[in-house]
Amino acid sequence: MSYRAWRAFVARSAFLLVAFLAMVAWGAQEQATLTADEMVTRMRANGTTIQDYDATIVIDTYADGKLDRTQTMRLLLLQPDRMRQEYLEPEYLSGNLNVVVGDTMWTYIAASETWYESDLADLSAAEQPWLGFRQILRAAQDELADYSFSLLDADGGIYHLSGTASVEDAAYGRIELWVDGKTFVPTRRVLYDVDGQLLVDVRISEVEQVIEGAYVARRLETYDEEGILRSVIHYEKVTVNQGLDPSLFAPPALETP
To answer: According to the CATH classification, is domain 3-246 in 2.50.20.10?
Structure first.
């Protein structure tokens, strides 16, 4: 797979990856109804709980109601600003690798045994949602800061929030969140483009506590604008604060393509 084909693949798969924003949140004590701003603050505030993160992720993609393909990857994060993403399966993706440190990304294409360097700011609009994997990193820009949120409902302890873009370069035109008021994990996340067209509807389940006060979801489902299932994302192995080796995130010695 060439570097150009790899970039196109990442862009086409972006709607799967934005789901990562919905699967990590941090717990709190039950309390009186919060405002929209307080809910967003609680969702964002406790990222320091997780110092490092290691997960095996299986993504099942559906077409015409049937399983079309399965991808497996390993995701590693290290505070404050490092990410490593390894594609394990299928075979044509196996060995491909992304390493991010700060605002720089290095991509390794196994087929050509070549590294490519790029600035995160240069990623296309379609590729930007892929950066959602970085959101638990303290140095990463939290996309929620680009939106002005209002509280639509809080029935049954589930907060329904609607966020409209407050900056010109926001990734989405509007975000809707349904957030559990005890764990602060979204149970549903709906993203719209600047024209109000639905991009993806993410539904989150199988939430569990991994360390004191920190919750993650084991299963996410994504649906299209017609309500048709597009993917199921399974987090099969999740470990946190295990002392990941910083050398896993070392920038490569690049060779000129």
So the answer is: yes
